Amino acid sequence: MSLSINRKDLEARFREEFNVSKATANEYIQFVFDQITDVLKEDGQVDIYGFGRFSVTHRKGRIGINPSTGEKMEILPTRNVKFKSSKPLKDMLK
C-alpha cells in the first residue's frame, strides 16, 4: 500500500494539529515553501535539522542528438533541486 500526502492533506493536518483556520494554515504552509524557494533561487541551501538538506545542482549545456530525427541539438544548461536526507530521518525509516 502506498501512502502519499499532498498540499491539501498537509493543510488539513496542520489545521487539526494547531486548531487554526484553513486560510491561516495555508498562509503558514505557503510561507515555509516561499522561504525555501527564495533561498534556492539564490543558489543557497536549506538545512532542516533532523530532516535533510535542499540544494541546487547545475547541469552544463551540451549538444545532444534528437532520437527521432538524428539531428544534433543544443541542450541548455539547467538548475535542479537536490534533496539529501539527514541521518536521523534515514534512521527513522529503517
Which features characterize this protein?
94 residues, alpha+beta, HU Protein, Chain A, three-stranded antiparallel β-sheet, 3 helices, 5 strands, 29% strand
Outline the structure in words.
By secondary structure, the protein is of the alpha+beta class. It has 2 domains: 1-42, no CATH class; 45-94, IHF-like DNA-binding proteins (HU Protein, Chain A, Irregular), CATH 4.10.520. It contains 3 helices and 5 strands. Helix 1 (7-18) packs across helix 2 (22-41). The protein is elongated and about 60 Å long. The two termini are 17 Å apart.
Summarize this entry quickly.
By secondary structure, the chain is an alpha+beta fold.
Walk me through the topology:
Elements: H1 7-18, H2 22-41, E1 46-48, E2 52-59, E3 62-65, E4 72-75, E5 78-85, H3 87-93
Antiparallel strand pairs: 1-2, 2-5, 3-4
